[in-house]
Prior knowledge:
By secondary structure, this protein is an alpha+beta fold. It folds into two domains: about 5-110, Phosphorylase Kinase, domain 1 (2-Layer Sandwich); about 130-345, Aminoglycoside 3'-phosphotransferase, Chain: A, domain 2, CATH 3.90.1200.10. The protein is built from nine helices and nine strands.
Amino acid sequence: MDDNLRDRIGHYLRAHKPEWVGCQVLSVQRIHGGASRETYRLSVQYDEAGVAVTRGLVLRRDPVSTLIETEREVEYAAYRAFSGSTVPVPEPILLEREAGPLDRPFFVMAEITGAKAASILAGDPYAPHQAKIGAQFFTILGHIAAADLGAMQLPPCFAASSPTEVWRSQLDHWERVIDDDELEPQPVARAAIRWLRRNPPPPLARLSFVHGDYRTGNFLFRDDGTIAAILDWEMAHLGDPLEDLAWALDPLWAHHNPARPAGMLSRAEALALWSQASGLAINPEALAWWEMFASLKGLAIWISSAKEFQSGTNTDPVMAFSGLYCLPYHNEVLAERLHRLAQEGRL
Protein backbone atom coordinates (compact mmCIF):
# COMPACT_ATOMS: atom_id res chain seq x y z
CA MET A 1 0.00 0.00 0.00
CA ASP A 2 1.11 3.56 -0.76
CA ASP A 3 3.31 4.82 2.11
CA ASN A 4 1.94 8.30 1.48
CA LEU A 5 -1.58 7.13 2.28
CA ARG A 6 -0.37 5.40 5.44
CA ASP A 7 1.44 8.56 6.55
CA ARG A 8 -1.59 10.73 5.86
CA ILE A 9 -3.87 8.44 7.84
CA GLY A 10 -1.40 8.47 10.73
CA HIS A 11 -1.22 12.25 10.69
CA TYR A 12 -5.03 12.45 10.72
CA LEU A 13 -5.41 10.03 13.63
CA ARG A 14 -2.81 11.85 15.72
CA ALA A 15 -4.59 15.16 15.10
CA HIS A 16 -8.10 13.89 15.83
CA LYS A 17 -7.44 11.29 18.52
CA PRO A 18 -4.97 13.08 20.84
CA GLU A 19 -5.67 10.52 23.57
CA TRP A 20 -4.00 7.97 21.28
CA VAL A 21 -0.51 9.14 22.20
CA GLY A 22 2.15 8.54 19.56
CA CYS A 23 -0.29 6.84 17.20
CA GLN A 24 1.45 5.02 14.34
CA VAL A 25 -0.17 3.22 11.42
CA LEU A 26 1.67 -0.07 11.09
CA SER A 27 -0.10 -1.27 7.95
CA VAL A 28 -2.85 -0.39 5.49
CA GLN A 29 -4.53 -3.14 3.45
CA ARG A 30 -7.21 -2.61 0.82
CA ILE A 31 -10.26 -4.87 1.22
CA HIS A 32 -11.72 -5.46 -2.22
CA GLY A 33 -15.30 -6.30 -3.10
CA GLY A 34 -17.36 -3.30 -1.99
CA ALA A 35 -19.22 -1.35 -4.63
CA SER A 36 -20.03 1.87 -2.79
CA ARG A 37 -16.97 2.59 -0.61
CA GLU A 38 -13.24 1.94 -0.70
CA THR A 39 -12.51 -0.13 2.40
CA TYR A 40 -9.12 -0.42 4.13
CA ARG A 41 -7.98 -2.49 7.10
CA LEU A 42 -5.57 -0.59 9.36
CA SER A 43 -3.28 -1.82 12.10
CA VAL A 44 -2.41 0.97 14.54
CA GLN A 45 -0.33 1.26 17.67
CA TYR A 46 -0.51 3.91 20.39
CA ASP A 47 -0.42 4.54 24.15
CA GLU A 48 -3.65 5.35 25.95
CA ALA A 49 -3.66 6.20 29.65
CA GLY A 50 -0.18 4.70 29.90
CA VAL A 51 -1.17 1.41 28.29
CA ALA A 52 0.34 0.25 24.98
CA VAL A 53 -2.42 -0.63 22.51
CA THR A 54 -2.25 -2.38 19.15
CA ARG A 55 -5.60 -2.68 17.40
CA GLY A 56 -7.31 -2.98 14.07
CA LEU A 57 -9.43 -0.30 12.45
CA VAL A 58 -11.45 -0.12 9.26
CA LEU A 59 -11.48 3.00 7.10
CA ARG A 60 -14.29 3.50 4.57
CA ARG A 61 -13.56 6.17 1.95
CA ASP A 62 -15.75 7.52 -0.83
CA PRO A 63 -14.50 6.12 -4.17
CA VAL A 64 -13.88 8.14 -7.30
CA SER A 65 -16.85 6.34 -8.84
CA THR A 66 -19.55 4.46 -6.97
CA LEU A 67 -22.37 2.04 -7.69
CA ILE A 68 -24.64 3.56 -5.05
CA GLU A 69 -24.65 7.33 -4.46
CA THR A 70 -24.97 7.93 -0.71
CA GLU A 71 -23.62 10.29 1.93
CA ARG A 72 -20.95 8.70 4.12
CA GLU A 73 -22.65 10.44 7.06
CA VAL A 74 -25.63 8.11 6.59
CA GLU A 75 -23.60 4.98 7.26
CA TYR A 76 -21.65 6.52 10.13
CA ALA A 77 -24.83 7.81 11.77
CA ALA A 78 -26.35 4.33 11.57
CA TYR A 79 -23.36 2.81 13.38
CA ARG A 80 -23.56 5.54 16.00
CA ALA A 81 -27.33 5.12 16.45
CA PHE A 82 -27.14 1.38 17.07
CA SER A 83 -23.82 1.25 18.95
CA GLY A 84 -24.32 -0.54 22.26
CA SER A 85 -27.80 -1.79 21.34
CA THR A 86 -29.22 -5.23 20.59
CA VAL A 87 -28.19 -4.60 16.97
CA PRO A 88 -24.46 -5.47 16.85
CA VAL A 89 -22.36 -2.95 14.89
CA PRO A 90 -18.71 -1.91 14.81
CA GLU A 91 -17.75 0.95 17.12
CA PRO A 92 -17.79 4.24 15.14
CA ILE A 93 -14.66 6.29 15.81
CA LEU A 94 -14.25 9.23 13.41
CA LEU A 95 -16.18 10.86 10.55
CA GLU A 96 -14.45 13.20 8.10
CA ARG A 97 -16.81 15.12 5.82
CA GLU A 98 -14.12 17.08 3.98
CA ALA A 99 -12.05 15.76 1.07
CA GLY A 100 -8.77 17.40 2.11
CA PRO A 101 -7.18 14.91 4.51
CA LEU A 102 -7.45 11.82 2.26
CA ASP A 103 -8.69 13.32 -1.04
CA ARG A 104 -12.24 12.10 -0.42
CA PRO A 105 -14.53 11.97 2.66
CA PHE A 106 -14.24 8.90 4.88
CA PHE A 107 -14.98 7.45 8.29
CA VAL A 108 -13.15 5.15 10.68
CA MET A 109 -14.59 2.36 12.79
CA ALA A 110 -13.27 -0.48 14.92
CA GLU A 111 -12.35 -3.73 13.20
CA ILE A 112 -14.39 -6.82 14.11
CA THR A 113 -11.94 -9.68 14.50
CA GLY A 114 -12.54 -13.43 14.43
CA ALA A 115 -15.60 -13.19 12.18
CA LYS A 116 -16.35 -13.54 8.48
CA ALA A 117 -18.97 -12.73 5.86
CA ALA A 118 -20.57 -15.23 3.47
CA SER A 119 -20.40 -15.02 -0.32
CA ILE A 120 -23.78 -15.09 -2.08
CA LEU A 121 -22.33 -17.79 -4.36
CA ALA A 122 -21.55 -20.20 -1.51
CA GLY A 123 -23.85 -23.22 -1.45
CA ASP A 124 -24.35 -23.53 2.31
CA PRO A 125 -22.11 -21.00 4.09
CA TYR A 126 -23.81 -21.14 7.49
CA ALA A 127 -23.65 -24.91 8.09
CA PRO A 128 -23.89 -26.32 10.69
CA HIS A 129 -25.38 -23.21 12.36
CA GLN A 130 -28.11 -22.20 9.89
CA ALA A 131 -30.88 -22.23 12.50
CA LYS A 132 -28.87 -20.32 15.11
CA ILE A 133 -27.66 -17.68 12.64
CA GLY A 134 -31.09 -17.41 11.02
CA ALA A 135 -32.80 -16.82 14.37
CA GLN A 136 -30.37 -13.99 15.11
CA PHE A 137 -30.52 -12.59 11.57
CA PHE A 138 -34.29 -12.10 11.46
CA THR A 139 -34.53 -11.12 15.15
CA ILE A 140 -31.92 -8.38 14.71
CA LEU A 141 -33.79 -7.13 11.65
CA GLY A 142 -36.91 -6.94 13.80
CA HIS A 143 -34.99 -4.95 16.41
CA ILE A 144 -33.96 -2.45 13.74
CA ALA A 145 -37.62 -2.01 12.80
CA ALA A 146 -38.55 -1.55 16.47
CA ALA A 147 -35.88 1.08 17.21
CA ASP A 148 -37.12 4.31 18.78
CA LEU A 149 -36.49 7.00 16.17
CA GLY A 150 -37.03 9.77 18.69
CA ALA A 151 -34.10 8.58 20.80
CA MET A 152 -31.63 8.23 17.92
CA GLN A 153 -30.66 11.88 17.34
CA LEU A 154 -30.33 11.26 13.61
CA PRO A 155 -28.74 13.94 11.37
CA PRO A 156 -30.74 15.89 8.75
CA CYS A 157 -29.78 13.40 6.01
CA PHE A 158 -32.43 11.11 7.55
CA ALA A 159 -35.30 13.46 6.80
CA ALA A 160 -38.25 11.24 5.86
CA SER A 161 -41.04 11.52 3.37
CA SER A 162 -44.56 11.56 4.73
CA PRO A 163 -45.37 8.07 6.08
CA THR A 164 -48.04 7.78 3.37
CA GLU A 165 -45.49 8.56 0.66
CA VAL A 166 -42.42 6.48 1.59
CA TRP A 167 -43.29 3.80 -0.96
CA ARG A 168 -43.59 6.41 -3.72
CA SER A 169 -40.37 8.13 -2.74
CA GLN A 170 -38.43 4.85 -2.92
CA LEU A 171 -40.03 3.83 -6.20
CA ASP A 172 -39.35 7.26 -7.71
CA HIS A 173 -35.71 7.02 -6.68
CA TRP A 174 -35.02 3.62 -8.22
CA GLU A 175 -36.98 4.45 -11.37
CA ARG A 176 -34.70 7.47 -11.82
CA VAL A 177 -31.67 5.19 -11.43
CA ILE A 178 -32.96 2.98 -14.23
CA ASP A 179 -33.78 6.04 -16.38
CA ASP A 180 -30.26 7.38 -15.94
CA ASP A 181 -28.26 4.16 -16.27
CA GLU A 182 -29.99 1.69 -18.57
CA LEU A 183 -27.84 0.75 -21.55
CA GLU A 184 -30.77 -0.86 -23.36
CA PRO A 185 -34.56 -0.95 -22.91
CA GLN A 186 -35.75 -2.70 -19.73
CA PRO A 187 -39.28 -3.94 -20.48
CA VAL A 188 -39.55 -6.17 -17.41
CA ALA A 189 -38.52 -3.34 -15.10
CA ARG A 190 -41.00 -0.97 -16.77
CA ALA A 191 -43.83 -3.49 -16.38
CA ALA A 192 -42.97 -3.92 -12.70
CA ILE A 193 -42.91 -0.16 -12.17
CA ARG A 194 -46.33 0.19 -13.80
CA TRP A 195 -47.80 -2.50 -11.54
CA LEU A 196 -46.22 -1.04 -8.39
CA ARG A 197 -47.64 2.42 -9.17
CA ARG A 198 -51.11 1.11 -9.98
CA ASN A 199 -51.23 -1.03 -6.84
CA PRO A 200 -49.69 0.96 -3.96
CA PRO A 201 -49.12 -0.93 -0.72
CA PRO A 202 -51.41 -0.63 2.29
CA PRO A 203 -50.39 2.10 4.78
CA LEU A 204 -47.23 1.26 6.69
CA ALA A 205 -47.60 -0.02 10.22
CA ARG A 206 -44.82 2.19 11.59
CA LEU A 207 -42.26 4.63 10.19
CA SER A 208 -39.00 2.86 11.00
CA PHE A 209 -35.27 2.90 10.55
CA VAL A 210 -34.53 0.95 7.36
CA HIS A 211 -31.08 -0.58 6.83
CA GLY A 212 -31.54 -0.58 3.06
CA ASP A 213 -29.26 -3.53 2.24
CA TYR A 214 -29.93 -6.10 4.97
CA ARG A 215 -28.97 -9.44 3.46
CA THR A 216 -26.57 -12.34 3.43
CA GLY A 217 -23.01 -11.11 2.87
CA ASN A 218 -23.60 -7.90 4.81
CA PHE A 219 -23.01 -9.28 8.28
CA LEU A 220 -20.13 -10.97 10.07
CA PHE A 221 -20.51 -14.22 11.99
CA ARG A 222 -18.22 -16.34 14.12
CA ASP A 223 -17.45 -20.05 13.85
CA ASP A 224 -19.82 -20.78 16.74
CA GLY A 225 -22.74 -19.27 14.82
CA THR A 226 -22.86 -15.92 16.62
CA ILE A 227 -23.55 -12.82 14.52
CA ALA A 228 -20.79 -10.35 15.38
CA ALA A 229 -21.81 -7.26 13.39
CA ILE A 230 -24.28 -5.92 10.86
CA LEU A 231 -22.42 -3.99 8.15
CA ASP A 232 -22.99 -1.84 5.05
CA TRP A 233 -25.57 0.72 6.18
CA GLU A 234 -24.87 3.16 3.35
CA MET A 235 -28.45 2.93 1.99
CA ALA A 236 -30.08 3.45 5.40
CA HIS A 237 -33.14 5.71 5.56
CA LEU A 238 -36.49 6.08 7.26
CA GLY A 239 -39.35 4.16 5.72
CA ASP A 240 -41.54 1.07 5.81
CA PRO A 241 -39.89 -1.74 7.81
CA LEU A 242 -41.29 -4.26 5.33
CA GLU A 243 -38.83 -2.86 2.78
CA ASP A 244 -35.95 -4.40 4.75
CA LEU A 245 -37.80 -7.65 5.35
CA ALA A 246 -38.63 -8.04 1.65
CA TRP A 247 -35.00 -7.39 0.65
CA ALA A 248 -33.75 -9.99 3.14
CA LEU A 249 -36.27 -12.49 1.71
CA ASP A 250 -35.28 -11.91 -1.92
CA PRO A 251 -34.28 -15.18 -3.63
CA LEU A 252 -30.95 -13.76 -4.81
CA TRP A 253 -29.70 -14.02 -1.23
CA ALA A 254 -31.00 -17.57 -0.62
CA HIS A 255 -27.80 -19.42 -1.59
CA HIS A 256 -29.54 -21.34 -4.38
CA ASN A 257 -32.39 -22.49 -2.09
CA PRO A 258 -35.34 -20.08 -2.46
CA ALA A 259 -37.39 -22.14 -0.01
CA ARG A 260 -35.05 -21.01 2.77
CA PRO A 261 -34.73 -17.19 2.87
CA ALA A 262 -31.11 -16.08 3.23
CA GLY A 263 -30.19 -19.79 3.13
CA MET A 264 -31.10 -20.17 6.80
CA LEU A 265 -34.72 -20.78 7.81
CA SER A 266 -38.10 -21.50 6.31
CA ARG A 267 -40.10 -18.46 5.28
CA ALA A 268 -42.65 -19.08 8.03
CA GLU A 269 -39.92 -19.20 10.68
CA ALA A 270 -38.28 -16.04 9.35
CA LEU A 271 -41.54 -14.07 9.33
CA ALA A 272 -42.48 -15.23 12.83
CA LEU A 273 -39.11 -14.21 14.28
CA TRP A 274 -39.22 -10.80 12.60
CA SER A 275 -42.79 -10.14 13.73
CA GLN A 276 -42.02 -11.08 17.33
CA ALA A 277 -38.89 -8.91 17.48
CA SER A 278 -40.42 -5.90 15.71
CA GLY A 279 -43.77 -6.08 17.49
CA LEU A 280 -45.49 -5.71 14.11
CA ALA A 281 -48.04 -7.91 12.40
CA ILE A 282 -47.19 -8.60 8.76
CA ASN A 283 -49.77 -7.56 6.17
CA PRO A 284 -49.33 -10.16 3.37
CA GLU A 285 -50.52 -7.71 0.71
CA ALA A 286 -48.01 -5.09 1.82
CA LEU A 287 -45.17 -7.61 2.00
CA ALA A 288 -45.97 -8.83 -1.53
CA TRP A 289 -45.72 -5.24 -2.81
CA TRP A 290 -42.35 -4.73 -1.13
CA GLU A 291 -41.04 -8.06 -2.44
CA MET A 292 -41.82 -6.94 -6.00
CA PHE A 293 -40.15 -3.63 -5.19
CA ALA A 294 -37.08 -5.40 -3.75
CA SER A 295 -36.43 -7.28 -6.98
CA LEU A 296 -36.88 -4.05 -8.96
CA LYS A 297 -34.47 -2.21 -6.66
CA GLY A 298 -31.93 -5.00 -7.14
CA LEU A 299 -32.34 -4.79 -10.90
CA ALA A 300 -31.76 -1.02 -10.78
CA ILE A 301 -28.52 -1.51 -8.83
CA TRP A 302 -27.24 -4.10 -11.29
CA ILE A 303 -28.17 -1.90 -14.26
CA SER A 304 -25.99 0.82 -12.71
CA SER A 305 -23.13 -1.60 -12.16
CA ALA A 306 -23.26 -2.74 -15.78
CA LYS A 307 -23.07 0.86 -16.97
CA GLU A 308 -20.16 1.66 -14.62
CA PHE A 309 -18.16 -1.35 -15.81
CA GLN A 310 -18.94 -1.07 -19.50
CA SER A 311 -18.05 2.63 -19.58
CA GLY A 312 -14.73 1.93 -17.82
CA THR A 313 -15.65 4.29 -14.99
CA ASN A 314 -15.23 1.48 -12.48
CA THR A 315 -13.46 -1.73 -13.51
CA ASP A 316 -13.78 -3.55 -10.19
CA PRO A 317 -14.76 -7.18 -10.95
CA VAL A 318 -17.75 -6.87 -8.60
CA MET A 319 -19.28 -4.50 -11.16
CA ALA A 320 -18.88 -7.03 -13.95
CA PHE A 321 -20.33 -9.81 -11.78
CA SER A 322 -23.32 -7.67 -10.86
CA GLY A 323 -24.06 -6.91 -14.50
CA LEU A 324 -23.46 -10.43 -15.82
CA TYR A 325 -25.10 -12.52 -13.07
CA CYS A 326 -27.29 -10.44 -10.78
CA LEU A 327 -28.96 -8.33 -13.50
CA PRO A 328 -30.39 -11.26 -15.52
CA TYR A 329 -31.24 -13.06 -12.27
CA HIS A 330 -33.46 -10.24 -11.02
CA ASN A 331 -34.92 -9.76 -14.48
CA GLU A 332 -36.08 -13.38 -14.34
CA VAL A 333 -37.39 -13.04 -10.77
CA LEU A 334 -39.41 -9.97 -11.73
CA ALA A 335 -40.75 -11.67 -14.84
CA GLU A 336 -41.88 -14.66 -12.74
CA ARG A 337 -43.59 -12.37 -10.22
CA LEU A 338 -45.42 -10.56 -13.03
CA HIS A 339 -46.38 -13.86 -14.66
CA ARG A 340 -47.98 -15.07 -11.42
CA LEU A 341 -49.97 -11.83 -11.17
CA ALA A 342 -51.15 -12.27 -14.76
CA GLN A 343 -52.29 -15.84 -14.02
CA GLU A 344 -54.23 -14.52 -11.02
CA GLY A 345 -55.82 -11.77 -13.13
CA ARG A 346 -54.13 -9.02 -11.08
CA LEU A 347 -51.62 -7.60 -13.56
